[in-house]
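Q: Joint fold for the lines below.
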Amino acid sequence: MKQTITLPGSPARISRLVAGENLLGELPGALEAHAGKRTPYWIWDKRVWEIWNEKLGPLGWPGTNTGRVLLFGALEQRKRLSSVEQLAQQLVEAGADRRSVLVAVGGGVTGDVVGFLASIYMRGIPHYQIPTTLLAQVDSSIGGKTGVDLPEGKNLLGTFHQPDLIWMSPEFLETLAEEDFRQGMAEVIKTALIGDEVLWKYLETHAEQIKGRDREALLRIVSACCVIKAKVVEADEKESGYRRVLNLGHTVGHAVERLSDYRIPHGDAVAMGLVVATKLSVEMACIDQGVLSKLEQLCVVYGLPTRIPSHFGPAALLEALKTDKKWEAGTLHFILPVRIGEVMDYDRLDLRALNRVMQSLR
Ligand SMILES: NC(=O)c1ccc[n+]([C@@H]2O[C@H](COP(=O)([O-])OP(=O)(O)OC[C@H]3O[C@@H](n4cnc5c(N)ncnc54)[C@H](O)[C@@H]3O)[C@@H](O)[C@H]2O)c1
Ligand SMILES: [Zn+2]
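A: Joint structure:
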């Protein structure tokens, strides 16, 4: 099975997303063909390179001996301007110019850094994304948001720069650590709750296959998430409004991450945020109580938490929420599910209801 999805971009440079099984052998040729006269420069997450290069070399993927493959030790702490500068210097030394194209191979950290670098290198060159984590395949590689962190906060520097090509193969997910897989599943559940009831049912009925990393099951969930993210991004590329629906679970999730000094991983925090948003929606009589039980069950099945640790008091959480970007002119934009597969952007949030929900979830 192979699927091609067209993403937003200027008419001359339309992003293409290719998802499929057994595509690893096809990729080098297809990528060269797409690049045309441009010379590809590959930037790999070093860890992914170490795991995969022996398998991919015989399939025609370029090696470090070509002088066009750079390795980047991808860690959130290295998602910084200093890494962008170092990689840019290495690219200059390697001969990359305005007629080059960058290829990012790795998770969200690599994708965000390389996308950012491509958007400013010699005033901007195209790039391709080959996401290798579940989170990167279902979320970060799609939509054109790039960026790096500042000591003051995550993703504070960045650009919108659509990749011309996104190529995803479920095979990569077979070597992903259990913990990274689990974290990515929170985004999959989020995406299903936002826009796909069929995907939700699939998550309920195919947990064993998904957790067992069955390729067909992985391709099924990755493709479904890509379709939804692509649709949302298409409707609102620069996040002026509708794209906010993708923040379901993230308002509370980000507050929990910040309060924990980022010791609670993103996916866990998003799972807690999804439960709060759904409970709030129940409290406001916008969604059936049964959805909340289904969500909690799904989180348990995929090993995700459904409760906020009791030492984070509701008052501290509400305070942390007020520093959120979505807090505009004293009101908080909150995305609430209204049924499985549909959400609404609610901007007159009743803080007392939120407080009650937080109290009940400790
Ligand atoms: N641009 C966006 O729209 C967007 C959206 C969501 C998240 N993000 C960003 O994404 C980042 C998180 O992404 P992530 O979770 O992919 O993190 P990551 O890139 O750090 O990858 C997680 C870990 O998996 C390893 N890894 C990657 N692929 C592997 C594979 N196939 N096999 C074995 N190990 C592998 C990496 O080396 C790393 O240790 C954050 O910085 C976040 O801000 C961006
Ligand atoms: Zn997220």
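Q: Anything notable?
A: The mean pLDDT is 90. Residues 51 and 175 are 8 Å apart (CA to CA).
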